[in-house]
Write a structure and sequence with these properties.
It contains 17 helices and 11 strands. The protein is α+β, with helices and mostly antiparallel strands and about 400 residues long. Among the domains are: about 55-150, no CATH class; about 260-315, no CATH class; about 325-410, no CATH class. The strands form 4 sheets. Strands 5-6-7-8-9 form a 5-stranded antiparallel beta sheet. Strand 7 and strand 8 (about 355-360) form a beta hairpin. The structure holds zinc ion (ZN). Zinc ion binds near residues 173, 278, 279, 281 and 315.
């Protein structure tokens, strides 16, 4: 005992009368968990009882509750050297978190993301329970599946496996790698390779890596799915679906049809000139360089060197936000409502097509670009980054139904 030290090593008969009396009159609570109780409830009760001293984590509890062949396999695979290399930085090993990760992979790979039901803990426990005494054949299959995927993740993502790349911001346009393991990325990187063989993945390793970097920085739906409520059914299924579709496309199509530029082109451009072609500043990390189509892919621009330029991922995202979310609604003959998006925030203003005056936030501005600059100051944005945003305001011409920029309207 750590308290009442004077009582250590004493027998009942050595104790004082008072203490003996206390023991005699104390009620000792016992909780019996029946064999036939539902498994998730057993796990839950065990978890709750286990709050007195050092609290065991989820994986340590599993180790007690679900002893069997499957757990033995997890503890063996936990020693896999390549896997160690990929996760060791987080020093998870001491508390069996590694085997929890491996279990998570097996559960998602076996039952598939389509059948996922939260919580992730119960979903994993179910796979453990269903296969508690796994036959040798199946153990071999599981083991090979794990090792293949770990090898491929190592070949494709290397030291940045299971890590997130975060793009820059207005103050510092350079993005960077996040050091923590991201379990959502672990899920898709590992499970993504289950269906493929080495010879399908290795020749396209660069494009696969670039494509994930692109998703992590440019695809809002994907970003949400690895960032917000990541164990929810919809978030989990969204990230799996997006990543599986991306992989399918890369593996299934010839490289020339793919929208993402190969790494060799990026490296070439980066070595010649490290400056961002949108903001003009230096790009400090090649992973932060996004190769952009000069003539957009959607307008028939090819994925070739002569149509390529490098930008910060942040700058490229800002650019695509500007062009994607704009919308204009006609009001009457002279005044139109214009909508534009600046960093996701929608601004509504009036534009008079006759005198080219913009009315925004109760004030009048003479030219579209001046209005844009002012509008941004109203929103608390930094003035010196204001040249890009609002000059792209578009409207739909009633006469020919085409999208035009307001600057063109002024020239008429
Ligand atoms: Zn830039």
């Amino acid at each position: 005992m750590k308290v009442l030290l004077e009582l250590n090593k004493k027998k009942y008969s050595d104790l004082s009368r008072d203490l003996q009396q206390k023991i005699n009159t104390t009620t000792l609570h016992t909780i019996i968990i029946k064999k036939e109780s539902p498994e998730d409830i057993k796990f839950e009760i065990f978890e709750r009882l286990n709050t007195g001293s050092v609290r065991l984590n989820e994986d340590e509890i599993r180790n007690v509750v679900y002893r069997g062949n499957y757990l033995k396999l997890l503890s063996e695979l936990e020693e896999d050297e390549t896997f160690h290399k990929l996760v060791s930085k987080d020093n998870y090993k001491k508390r069996m978190v590694y085997r929890g990760m491996i279990l998570r992979f097996f559960a998602l790979a076996e039952k598939t993301y389509l059948n996922y039901k939260p919580s992730i803990k119960q979903f994993c426990n179910k796979d453990l329970r269903d296969n508690r005494n796994m036959p040798a054949e199946k153990r071999k299959e599981y083991s090979q599946r794990f090792k293949k995927c770990v090898e491929l993740v190592n070949s494709v993502f290397g030291e940045y496996a299971f890590k997130r790349f975060v793009f820059g911001n207005e103050e510092n346009r350079n993005g960077k790698w996040n050091n923590n393991l991201n379990m959502s990325l672990f899920d898709i990187q590992m499970c993504g390779f289950v269906r493929y063989e080495k010879h399908q993945i290795i020749p396209k390793a660069d494009i696969i890596r670039e494509s994930l970097l692109h998703l992590m920085t440019q695809n809002a739906k994907f970003i949400d799915s690895i960032e917000i409520g990541t164990s929810d059914k919809s978030a989990l299924q969204t990230r799996f679906k997006i990543w599986f579709d991306t992989l399918e496309k890369i593996v299934g199509e010839p490289s020339s049809e793919i929208r993402i530029f190969p790494y060799s082109i990026k490296q070439h451009l980066y070595l010649i000139d490290k400056s961002c072609k949108i903001c003009g500043q230096q790009i400090s990390n090649i992973d932060d360089a996004e190769v952009d189509h000069i003539i957009p892919y959607s307008k028939g621009g090819e994925t070739i060197m002569s149509n390529a330029q490098i930008t910060h991922r942040f700058c490229n995202r800002q650019k695509s936000n500007q062009t994607a979310v704009m919308e204009i609604v006609f009001d009457n003959d002279d005044v139109i409502d214009i909508f534009a998006s600046y960093f996701g925030e929608t601004i509504k203003a009036k534009f008079n097509t006759k005198n080219h005056i913009i009315q925004y936030n109760g004030k009048i501005y003479e030219t579209p670009s001046a209005a844009g600059t002012k509008a941004k100051i109203h929103m608390g944005a930094h003035e010196d980054i204001s040249t890009n945003g609002w000059t792209f305001w578009k409207y739909t011409d009633k006469n020919d139904g085409k999208d035009k920029f307001i600057d063109e309207l002024r020239k008429k």
